[in-house]
Amino acid sequence: MIIINARFLTQKVTGVQRFAIEISKILRKLNREIVFVAPSGIIDNDLARELGAIVIGKSKGTVWEQIDLRFYLRSKGNPLVVSFCNTGLIFYNNQIVTIHDMSYKVNPGWFPRTFYLWYNFLIPHIAKRSLRLFTVSNSAKKDILKYLNIRQQKIRVIYNSSNLNTNNNFEQIEEGRYLLSVSSLDPRKNLNNLLKAYKDIDTKINLVIVGLRKDNFELDETLLNERVIVKSYVSDDELASLMRYAEAFVYLSLYEGFGLPPLEAMSMGCPVLVSDIPAHREVCGDAALYADPYNVEDAKEKITNLLNNDQLKTELILAGKKNIKRFNWFESAQKVLDSINELV
Q1: For helices 236-245 and 260-267, angle between their N-to-C axes, nearest 10 degrees
Q2: Which strand (E) or helix (H) includes residue 209?
Q3: What is the residue-wise DSSP string for 289-302?
Q4: How many Å apart are CA 324 and CA 47, to the nearest integer?
Q5: Cα first-last separation, the chain
Q6: For 147-174, what is each residue's pLDDT tens digit?
Q7: What string of DSSP letters covers 59-87?
Q8: CA nearest 100: which of 131, 129, 66, 137?
Q9: CATH topology of domain 178-326
Q10: Helix-, strand-, coil-residue percentages of the chain, each rounded to 5
């Protein structure tokens, strides 16, 4: 028996949940005997039905994962359980967990202290006990090996991909000409430096920021004006449309395990500028323009160059379309299933 921890069905979708959703949908097709279990409070009931998800227990969140899920597994003879979203069960050996990055170790200040303390206890514990670890890039794997006492052979790299629908004829979003950035609004995403780089650029270009707000971060109000448009949530189709018609996609994150939004932008034919960090170099290759995320003047110069250089835009768009072919959700899900089958 194989159990998937589908707690992600109760969470708002960021890159971590996107990984879980897309891999799970394909796993469901590849092996109908896999069982998806979730707490109550499912957000997307259509997706839950597609996965055949079973709601168990009375708790939610971490309590559900550590208590209700554990009791369910015990009732089924302690089968293999797979978790896709950075967490897993304490004191349970027959599991595979996914660690997307080591950001809580790279800079604890990016997170609320309670979150940091919990992850600082949980991640090393579940990583040590798990039979396998999944992560989303070789860059993230290198960080796991740096910060955790884990054998290299235990880790499997499973790439993300883009699931945006590139075939629809989307209507252009009425934002005029605009730069686009898509990320959670938290310190690691470096949005205030993006705002600083943007504020002196051609006033005819708007900046659209799409992302869920976090409690430990606020955009610098002194850098906001009528040209900065902040959207807390958009549908996948709206996101695809925003990316299709943007002048450029800008992502100045300070640290990533993978960094899915630039890849999604490439899939929509949008030229991409990203921060010069290891994960972006691995994922974007020569299909992006790179800027120093700590150097506002460098970012401003690169953004201006991209906006004013049509040849560079075209080269990046073509390189992006080529680069996206390296990533495929089906291939990633098959690697997940192969790793599972090695253990059952």
Answers
A1: 70
A2: strand 206-210
A3: EEE-TT-HHHHHHH
A4: 25
A5: 8
A6: 998 999 999 999 999 988 766 655 555 5
A7: --HHHIIIIIHHHHHHHTTS-EEEE-SS-
A8: 137
A9: Rossmann fold (3.40.50)
A10: 45, 15, 40
SS (HEC) of the chain = CEEEECHHHHCCCCHHHHHHHHHHHHHHHHCCCCEEEECCCCCCHHHHHHHCCEECCCCCHHHHHHHHHHHHHHHCCCCEEEECCCCCCCCCCCEEEECCCCHHHHCHHHCCHHHHHHHHHHHHHHHHHCCEEEECCHHHHHHHHHHCCCCHHHEEECCCCCCCCCCCCCCCCCCCCEEEEECCECHHHCHHHHHHHHCCCCCCCEEEEECCECCCCCCCHHHCCCCEEEECCCCHHHHHHHHHHCCEEEECCCCCCCCHHHHHHHHCCCCEEEECCHHHHHHHCCCCEEECCCCHHHHHHHHHHHHHCHHHHHHHHHHHHHHHHHCCHHHHHHHHHHHHHCCC
Domain with CATH 3.40.50.2000 in the chain: 2-161+328-341, 178-326
What gap in Å lies between CA 266 and CA 251, rounded to an integer? 12
Total residue length of the chain: 344
CA atoms of 289 and 36, how far apart (whole Å): 40
* Angstrom distance (rounded) from CA 18 to CA 26: 13
Token pair recorded at residue 110: 């990016």
Structure tokens at 192: 């205030």
Contact 305, 138 (CB under 8 A): no
Query: Which residue reads 């960080």 in tokens?
Result: 143
Domain 2-161+328-341 has CATH 3.30.1280.10: no
Q: Tens digit of pLDDT for each residue in 292-329? A: 999 999 999 999 999 999 999 999 999 999 999 999 99
Rounded CA separation 163/73 (Å): 32
Place of tokens 């309590």: 63
Task: pLDDT band for 218, please (50, 70, 90 cuts).
Answer: confident
Tokens of 58: 């009375």
